[in-house]
Amino acid sequence: MLSAVPSPCPDPASAPDPDSRAWLAALSGGDERERARAAGRLRSLVARAVRDGLRGRGERDPDLAAEAAEAAFERLRASLDAYDGSSRFTVFAASFAFAELARTLGGARSPDCRDCLAAIAEHVEIELVGGSPGGAMPALEAHLGACPGCADAREGLHDFALRRA
């Protein structure tokens, strides 16, 4: 059973964690109905993350939420092979929602933003286990300090993951 609430942060030596492996198996398994159910749950998770992110910014536009959620879901589906287990799958998936909001609402405009937004799931995961991402990811930390759009995406993902951990 896939959990909408993430399991504890993965141990890098055994990444991905069991819940993340269950998500991946369901999304790529042989049974078409199981894949469709998993994709529906993934779409719902991304939509919740988008609504959370919009609420945190004082936005309540349902059309904007639907468009951003669909764009984030499509980017995520196209990037599933990029998942490396360095974060929980649910954090990785939600990061697409917050990255899409950063792109949609502005603020994430520099060429460095693409790399930053791709790495925020790992950054947040390090924070959630009490680590210091600045030491492991100094370039990302510097970008977050200089880019309000990416910093908002990181903060939104962090808050979303905390509420669901």
Quick structural summary:
The chain is an all-alpha fold and 165 residues long. The chain has helices at residues 18-28, 32-56, 62-78, 89-104, 111-128, 133-136, 138-146, 148-164. The chain has one domain.
Structure explained in plain terms:
- The chain is mainly α.
- It has eight helices and no strands.
Distance between the termini: 17 Å
Q: Strand fraction band? A: under 5%
Label the overall shape. globular
Helix content: over 70%
Number of helices: 8
Alpha-beta content class: mainly alpha
Order of helices and strands: HHHHHHHH
Main pleated sheet: none
Average pLDDT reading:
86
Strand count: 0
Query: What is the rounded Rg?
Result: 15 Å
- Number of separate structural domains: 1
Low-pLDDT ranges: 1-10
Question: Strands, helices and their partners?
Answer:
Elements: H1 18-28, H2 32-56, H3 62-78, H4 89-104, H5 111-128, H6 133-136, H7 138-146, H8 148-164
Give the tags.
165 residues; 8 helices; mainly alpha; 0% strand; globular
